Write a sequence for this structure.
C-alpha cells in the first residue's frame, strides 16, 4: 500500500493466505476476483511476506525478459 500497489486487506500474521486457499472458492477464483477488483497488478501477503501478483502477459514478459537482471534474485 505504501508503494501505491492496491490489494485485498491482509489479516495480522496470516496475510491473505486464508483467503487464497479457501476451499469453498478456490485459489483461481479468488485471484480472478481480485484481478477484477484491483486490476492486472496487485499485492497480497503470504503470511508477512509481500507478494506482487502480475496477471498482464505484457508485464510478465517485461519482467522476465527485458528486465530479468533486476528480478533474477526474486522468487516465482
Amino acid at each position: 500500500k505504501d508503494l501505491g500497489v492496491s490489494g485485498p486487506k491482509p489479516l495480522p500474521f496470516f496475510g491473505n493466505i486464508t483467503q487464497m486457499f479457501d476451499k469453498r472458492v478456490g485459489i483461481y477464483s479468488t485471484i480472478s476476483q481480485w484481478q477484477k477488483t484491483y486490476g492486472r497488478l496487485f499485492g497480497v501477503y503470504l503470511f508477512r511476506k509481500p507478494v506482487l501478483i502480475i496477471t498482464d502477459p505484457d508485464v510478465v514478459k517485461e519482467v522476465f525478459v527485458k528486465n530479468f537482471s533486476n528480478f533474477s534474485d526474486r522468487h516465482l
